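User: Can you help me understand a structure? I only have the sequence.
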Amino acid sequence: MAGKMRRSEASTSKSSNSRGETVVVDWGRCRSSCGYCKSAGRTSISHGLWARSITVDDYQDLLDRGWRRSGCFLYKPEMEKTCCPSYTIRLRASDFVPSKEQLRVLRRMQRLLDGTLDVKKTVEVVDDADISKGKCSCACHEVSSSGTKESLSAKNEEKNRAEHIVNYLSDQVDKAIHSCAESGEFPCNIQLPNASVKQVSQAKRKLLVGAEDLMYSSNIAFQIVATIRRVQAAERVMRHDAENDTVSPKVIAEKLAASLSQLTETSGFSISACNGHINFYTSTTQASSSEGAQIVIGSKESAAGCKRKACCMRSAKHPQGKRRKLEIRLKRSSFDPEEFALYRRYQMKMHNDTPDHVTESSYRMFLVDTPLVSVPPSGDGRVPPCGFGSFHQQYVVDGKLIAVGVIDILPKCLSSKYLFWDPDFAFLSLGKYSALQEVGWVKENQVHCPSLQYYYLGYYIHSCSKMRYKAAYRPSELLCPLRYQWVPFNIARPLLDRKPYVVLSDHALLQDGESLPPRTAENAIEVQQNDNGDEDTNDVLIDDSEEMIEPESESSDDESGPETSGQTLENCDVGDILIGIKDPV
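Assistant: Let's start by predicting it. Here is the structure, written out as tokens:
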């Protein structure tokens, strides 16, 4: 597809599954200055295609070969020549494990909806560790020496009791693990990790809705899955096998919780599995949890050294306010005046664009127009209820539009293209929140369309700090630019630490203790000759640009299309470029 076709030639192909027709025009090499490394020259090099129409199956294949789209313009970085190599990054939704920060984002939104988060004035929560050291922000930080001794004595007694319970529960979980291994539910030929049960602090329980009775929790299921995957990955490399599915932490936690059910009678705890965590409650009433609300262990017990710790905790609370309603609406890509008004405000406020730069035509060309041939729902398990194609996902709070995610829904994935949001709601980290919702959407719709398994986050540039957030959606994979194999990010990262362009599938050599093959002198000479500043006859210079906007709120990456005349474009808007294009003959 990226071959040296003449620009006037069109590539057409009919989809084998009768989902429409793909018609593209090769546009050749495109050069621009780089929005990532801010190089002085036009060092960002990609290959471009104009798409008059493209089936969702063909676009899925193009994504899996390193292509992306901006409106109706498709492009692919020339990885060995461009200044900042861009690797396609994706995540298997069923394997996603949210980080502590991502969980905080979910809880913050929930507090907003519950009316317990003050939107106009944020109240600084006293740090647990500072409270425990007597650093209270209220007047009760001055405690008498006798009161301190009594507090320390009670603290030590409580600590010893909690330690005894933790050891007991850890032993019981270990027994359940061995029991499952002996029954064949877990591999018995590998060394499984020892269980670790931790106490949930009072502060953590207060943050989680319905978790007042939660006392202890274990994340051993995640450790077991990680161990099994490492062993299976090593075996696949030795046998050159294809990737095989591994049981998820959620399934393992449920099996272990079922094996521990007898503890309810002997210990007084009720046990339940919550998104991969094994939770122990003080009563038989099990707290209900929503998707993504895992328990995070690790903070110290709060207010241990303060006799009036209740006043400290009360000072950190937000007053009860009005409950809010969040609606997430998915609609086909089309122009919406309310969306455009939000986009215009977002671009001018967050990216300092001038009003004449944020035009309706540029918005349409960038985020509304799409070459994807839409596919309606089929009801046969091959297409999700919404169908395939380009969509806008609206986030509406109490009737007010606060964010819009521009996405493509394809046979294997949800591909996130752009997100814009209301600057007044920046405190909600809507980039992270929308990404978590999109991952959740993929998981929910696997029931209707089993082939829909992945979440694509666009391009990952290791040398760009603004791109690092994408690797926080674990466990992610990067696409090898040569062999088009998917390589786990934790394996690719040390390779990318060495140099920007890497054949990621060479990771097998690194695992075997061998060094990567160096760039040959012939290759170095070839690259130098092709990138000496002289433009090839099929080069098209394009405007200064960054890549497509990703689902994170911290960075927004715009795309540009080529100009018909082939002249250098200086400070042009993407819409202005696209307006001058006529349909190829």
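Now, to help you interpret it: Confidence is low (pLDDT under 50) at residues 1-16, 121-147, 284-319, 519-585. The radius of gyration is 27 Å. Let me know which part you'd like to focus on.
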